[in-house]
Amino acid sequence: MDFYRAHVLVCGGTGCTSSGSAELIERFEKGLAEKGLEKEVKVVRTGCFGLCEAGPIVIVYPEGAFYSRVQLEDVDEIVEEHLLKGRIVERLLHKDEKEEDVATTLDDIEFYKKQNRVALRNCGVIDPEVIDEYIAFDGYKALGTCLTEKTPQEVIDIIKASGLRGRGGGGFPTGVKWQFGHDAKGDQKYIICNADEGDPGAFMDRSVLEGDPHSVIEAMAIAGYAIGANMGYVYVRAEYPIAVKRLQIAIDQAREYGLLGEGIFGTDFQFDIEIRLGAGAFVCGEETALMESIEGRRGEPRPKPPFPANKGLFGKPTVINNVETLANIPQIILKGADWFGSMGTEKSKGTKVFALGGKINNTGLVEIPMGTTLREVIYDIGGGIPDGKKFKAAQTGGPSGGCIPAEHLDLKIDYDTLTSIGSMMGSGGLIVMDEDNCMVDVAKFFLDFTVDESCGKCPPCRIGTKRMLEILQRITDGKGKPGDIEKLIELGESIKAGALCGLGKTAPNPVLSTIKYFRDEYEAHIYDKRCPAGHCQQLLVYEIIPTKCIGCGMCARVCPAEAITGEKKQPHHIDPDKCIKCGACIEKCKFDAIKR
């Protein structure tokens, strides 16, 4: 084994890869070779560190120096100063928005201080394409413990006692689901990992597969042992090429090491895994539609019952868990149910990974104990709202979730609390909105997504969501009518009651929650023909402020509709009938003489 005095960890997640981290790795390797340091310093491509906003990220150990936004031209300086001369390059160290001093190491950064990385424990720590690195961090030890020291029922009892709930949607108890699979009768059973992450703004599962694929493989094998399955499938969207590549490498390595296949750990247990690629249909995130897709048919939900645990893939008993749920399993086996249960709240144990995006300073992945408040996530971890704007709402659960207003900023995040206020945990997307977001338009955005992605199998979803979208479109166009709000509520409740699958039943949530908390905005659109956020284009009116306008004519020159007139050095005027509300005049005016 080669020993190195220093390691350069470069983020190889999708975000940093798109920002050029692969080129950084090549430059580091070349620079180290030129200095004769290639046998002293090892460059490691890792998974996502989480702080995507600061990418590309490079961490140099043993000092733990956290370099953010590293560019190609910075590499030579790091090699020369830090790796050759031992002097940390302070100008490249990460600096928190609210802190004057630079943060030398990861632990000094505010973004990480309130996090507890369990599912993400190895992301940004190991090379996901080297099985030995996973094994060095107790990888496959949990599987070995289960196969050699515990019965299948004992494994299920541990998961039950831990209180782990499914991290992919409604939060069904994982141990109970495994018990159903264990008790079901069948000559063949299956384990499925649902990695079809389709929510807008969600990238948690992708990051786990990219940064720690062996944790999912190990967990699937443990689940297979627990319920009596010998075959597993990972259903992952083809839009995740890095995740798919690393997952296949990990599967091949596990087979080579005898950790998949026959006689695992010298026992009579056998288990293997295959990857199935999805074509991007959002509905295939629903478990029964997912199984239809694996079987080679159009992804459409099946009526339930029968439930998958009794009659699932190819008509056989099947247990389906999502990526994040599985990533917790090995740690629960190794550290115990009490350890996992010590985190979180009474009914929502452990941690939850969120993809934090939208109007937030620190976009990225965060993993927090259940029960952490929304305020802590947004202001302590997320660094607050850019440009000093006011927080307006946070949307959780993607198209199936709802909007949480500012009055609930101190809400403790867990499954039941979110459900009680009209939202849901979902897979873990968390989109932050500020005062410039129009909540009617937000509802329209998510419903437009749902209408486009509906499989069309059941009329409530196929027809009902389309009618709701038409009403929302009319409202944002300034053509709303009295009674539209009531129609939206009636339609939403009917869809929730009558849709076939969970996705259809939750599709009205963004509309119903925004009506509940931001009804005044709907009323302003309908009755006053005004968008309070100044966002809906058809409701905007552009006016020139005479006392500020110096008559320079710049606005008139850039107006594509020739709607602005006026004499030179005299206040100009905008013809509302000609104005197409493009905003070009506001962008060009240097005197803030145009108001919207």
TrEMBL record:
UniProt keyword Heme, yes or no: no
One GO MF term attached to the UniProt entry: NADH dehydrogenase (ubiquinone) activity
Family annotation (SUPFAM superfamilies): 4Fe-4S ferredoxins, Nqo1 FMN-binding domain-like, Nqo1 middle domain-like, Nqo1C-terminal domain-like, Thioredoxin-like
Entry annotated with the keyword Cytoplasm: no
Annotated 4Fe-4S ferredoxin-type domain residues: 540-569, 570-596
Residue ranges of coiled coil: none
Origin superkingdom: Bacteria
Key words of the record: 4Fe-4S, Iron, Iron-sulfur, Metal-binding
Cited Pfam families: 2Fe-2S_thioredx (PF01257), Complex1_51K (PF01512), Fer4_7 (PF12838), NADH_4Fe-4S (PF10589), SLBB (PF10531)
Family from the record: Belongs to the complex I 51 kDa subunit family.
Name this polypeptide is given: NADH-quinone oxidoreductase subunit NuoF
Organism: Christensenella massiliensis
Gene: nuoF
